[in-house]
Amino acid sequence: MAETAARKPRGKGAPKGNEPAISKSELTRAYRDMLLIRRFEEKAGQLYGMGLIGGFCHLYIGQEAVVVGMQLCLKPGDQVITSYRDHGHMLATGMEARGVMAELTGRIGGYSKGKGGSMHMFSREKGFYGGHGIVGAQVSLGAGLAFANWYREDGAVAVTYFGEGASNQGQVYESLNLAALFKLPCIFVIENNKYGMGTSVDRASASKDLSKNGAPWGIPGEQVNGMDVIAVREAGERAVAHCRAGNGPYLLEMKTYRYRGHSMSDPAKYRTREEVQKMREQNDCIETARRLLLESFGVAESELKVIDDEVKAIVQDSADFAQTSPEPDESELWTDVLIDDSSVVAGGR
Amino acid sequence: MTQILMPALSPTMTEGKLARWLKKEGETIKAGDVIAEIETDKATMEVEAVDEGTLTSILVPEGTEGVAVNTPIAELDGGAGAAKPAPQREPAAPAPKAEDHAEIAAKGTDNRPETVPAQAKAPAPEKDWGPTKAITVREALRDAMAAEMRASKDVFLIGEEVGQYQGAYKISQGLLDEFGPKRVIDMPITEHGFTGMAVGAAMTGLRPIVEFMTFNFSMQAIDQIINSAAKTLYMSGGQLGCPIVFRGPNGAASRVAAQHSQCYASWYAHCPGLKVVAPWSAADAKGLLRAAIRDPNPVIVLENEILYGQTFEMPTADDFILPIGKAKVEREGTDVTIVAFSIMVGLAMQAAEALAAQGISAEVINLRSLRPLDTETIVRSVKKTNRIVTLEEGWPYAGIGSEVAMQIMENCFDDLDAPPVRVAGLDIPMPYAANLEKLALPRLEQVVDAVKRVTYK
After folding, report:
1. B141 occurs within a structural domain
2. I need a labelling partner for A308 at 20 to 30 A (CA). Which of A215, A273, B241, B375 fits?
3. Is residue B332 in some structural domain?
4. Do A339 and B204 count as a contact with CB atoms less than 8 A apart?
5. Is B260 among the catalytic positions?
6. Which residues pair with A254 in a beta bridge?
7. Does the pLDDT at position B79 exceed 80?
């Protein structure tokens, strides 16, 4: 199991006739969560266009299967950390759409009271540790989450997401070494969407198979079709089992694709319209899951319509909330810089 | 009916040129279809449809320049599935005007919690901790860590050579034997990685002590210290603290040249979200390090290699601890205030002794804490002496002395009888040659001369 070579990418849909590797309820949940992320991000893009969201805004559209598939493998107590393309991860871990959208609009109802923005939201309750803006920094932090699990011996695993662009950062390799050295329960997930901003992976990485990037430290790795939520879940289960058994870290390279630009102000001239269109039409994770539910699991259109409507309502509600929640009070300027420590030195003077 | 609005396609775009329509009136549009091309201030961008429906009318013809963001550019006859336009219950969050920022900033300055009260209060006396014994700074630091590690299993020490080697400077001597390899953890030479790892662990509530073999190596990890440890509490709206200590020797040692002889006091003291302490005596070392370990915030503890072997009297009480943010008046005086921290407190004490012989009474303030700075104690002293000399080993430019002088300007300018003078290391990389190194660091005669300048003696 350990040294799994590049697995055969799954084609369109699930293997017909074979036993599907996912239950109807799980796939339904995955479909719902992926759709929620898609619709949420479309709405975020719309609000950005209206000037309601400022600064950087990196959309996850196209990559939904990665985080949703991985999340199916996790238990309460496990942790998730990622970079700044993070809205999908928040929603997948169960954070409220309202709080995320209100953070995007910089309102008090946002997860960080409007002080973090698109790239900086957290929920200890849901095991989501951000939301980090410095490419690659979250990888060392993620190793630290896994270190805490190792230290406490609590059986939890930490899933550390980063892009193929970040995979060239020095601290990523420092973290791989540390994780392997201490057998930390850390799943490193490279979301390879082919472009680090405008630079294609071919122009950035001498390594052509990023799943082997942990090989020098003996970290098993797999290439996974990140456009297929079932393939992601299967690989995720192997990774989680490996980590929970105390075997140390695991690396998954998710072959995925973002449909939108790097951020909102990306003219996307580094790739053709046709390339994007082809990916959308032939490999879209939501369409694939939808077809499978209808064709292989006997789910009725009307059942999916109920999900579609529920998602639409959640997103609309979040957008309404994000525009009606007030801006943070000016007094918030000075809060949360430091934690009050008046109890620390009781014996002081 | 849904209106398509001129979108903002970059953080700075306020208007753009509608370069080209890719859909005609009457055409059916799906979400994700490219409907138009817009030239922004940065580039030509494609506009994708968010809503579905039939394009009923184009309101802004292609080629139009200067179309303001949020101007309706087309109308869509939404099908049953079309998303409703976002409600406009209040004016769409107007971008704050420039003067708003200034106003907020000004208000903020007034509200700053650390602003010194106009009327300085009488100083609270330093608590009497009872009997003392002679102990080295090295032992004091070790004892502080051991005491806190005994008190909480969440506290652990991580760094290069802290375990089996017993510490590169023998600060962690004996800790591995007492606490075992899971709590005294040897790291490979990988500061960026292990600092990030420790910060991540602290975000879950563990309380790491990160030892840098010297603070020079912390530059490898400074992104994790500032961007991750110091800022996350604020960026998370108070949800995610980072109780962590970064400690190790700072500043010049002896004859180790430029890359290993640098003071990081002003680097770290500059950053909100951090606390920074710089102990001088053994009591400072133990009391401040214990407070740093218990503190729920990231704390930088700037030690000094030359001080490690020096012996001081230190309270023997088990619960001895010092508050972060309080300076100590090490020597009382009436003619001039000398402010120093870390090893320079020793030089200031020598200077005070030399000055006393010449009939000048110098008050010496050991800052102990650089962030927060105990401005109250400095101001109280200057109100008494009316003169101040700042002393530090680091570079003068934007140094701690600069900040102390500015605090004086802001808080007790009218009490000054002479402009403040700073004594600092020379504004050069540290030379190796013994004679040059000596010249690059503050010397006794410079401090004495500086005092004479401000006292016009």
Report:
1. yes
2. A273
3. yes
4. no
5. yes
6. A191, A224
7. no
Residue B22 near residue A273 (C-beta atoms within 8 A): no
pLDDT-derived band at B92, boundaries 50, 70, 90: very low
Q: Do residue A50 and residue B92 have CB atoms under 8 angstroms apart?
A: yes
Judge whether B200 is closer than 8 Å to chain A, CB to CB: yes
Any catalytic annotation for residue B353?
A: no
Question: With 50 as the cut, is the pLDDT of residue B106 above it?
Answer: no
Quote the ipTM score: 0.91
DSSP secondary structure of B142-172: HHHHHHHHHH-TTEEEEETTSSTT--TTSTT
Point out the residue among A140, A269, A341 whose CB comes nearest to the CB of B200.
A140
- pLDDT band, very low/low/confident/very high, at B291 (cuts 50, 70, 90): very high
User: Is residue B408 in some structural domain?
Assistant: yes
The answer on B188 and B258 residing in a single domain is yes
A278-282, B3-7, B92-96, B130-134 — most confident range: B130-134
Provide the CATH number for the domain around residue B192.
Answer: 3.40.50.970
Among the partner residues A110, A143, A148, nearest to B204 by beta-carbon distance: A148
Interface probe for A, chosen from B190, B236, B277 (most Cβ of A below 10 Å), is B236
Q: Are A40 and A63 in contact (CB under 8 A)?
A: no
DSSP state of B7: P
What's the CATH code of the domain at B438? 3.40.50.920
**Exposed / middle / buried, residue B347 (Cβ in 10 Å: 0-12, 13-18, 19+):** buried
For residue A157, the chain B residues in CB contact (below 8 A) are none
The reply to whether B219 and B352 lie within a common domain is no
Distance CA A337, CA B113 (A): 11
In this structure, are B138 and B265 located in the same domain? yes
Which chain A residues have a beta carbon less than 8 Å from that of B126? 349
Using a CB–CB cutoff of 8 Å, tell me whether B189 touches chain A. no
Q: Do B86 and A170 touch (CB under 8 A)?
A: no
| Res A210 pLDDT > 70 | yes
**pLDDT of B91 higher than 70:** no
Same domain, B137 and B72: no
Which pLDDT value is given to residue A264? 83
Whether residues B289 and B348 fall in one domain: no
Q: Give pLDDT, residue B93.
A: 44
Point out the catalytic residue in the list B15, B37, B48, B260.
Answer: B260
Model pLDDT, residue B416 = 98
Q: With an 8 Å Cβ cutoff, are B188 and A178 in contact?
A: yes
List the one residue out of B30, B40, B131 whose CA is nearest residue B83: B30
What local confidence, expressed as pLDDT, does residue B123 receive?
A: 65
Which residues lie across from A224 on neighbouring strands? A254
In this structure, are B334 and B306 located in the same domain? no
The domain tally of chain B equals 3
Same domain for B297 and B244: yes
CATH number, domain containing residue B38: 2.40.50.100
Residue B119 lies in a domain: no
| Domain range annotation of chain A | 24-324
Domain boundary among B77, B110, B143: B77
Q: Which residues on chain A are in Cβ contact (under 8 Å) with B108?
A: 330, 333-334
- DSSP secondary structure letter of residue B224: I
Residues B146 and B221 in one domain: yes
Q: Is the pLDDT of residue B34 over 60?
A: yes
Check if B315 contacts A (Cβ < 8 Å).
no
Contact at CB, A330 and B228, closer than 8 angstroms: no
Catalytic residue among B191, B363, B376, B392: B191
Give pLDDT, residue B245.
98
Q: Do A139 and B196 touch (CB under 8 A)?
A: yes
Asked if the model's pLDDT at residue B10 lies above 90, the reply is: no
Class of domain A24-324: alpha beta
For residue B44, give its domain range: 2-77
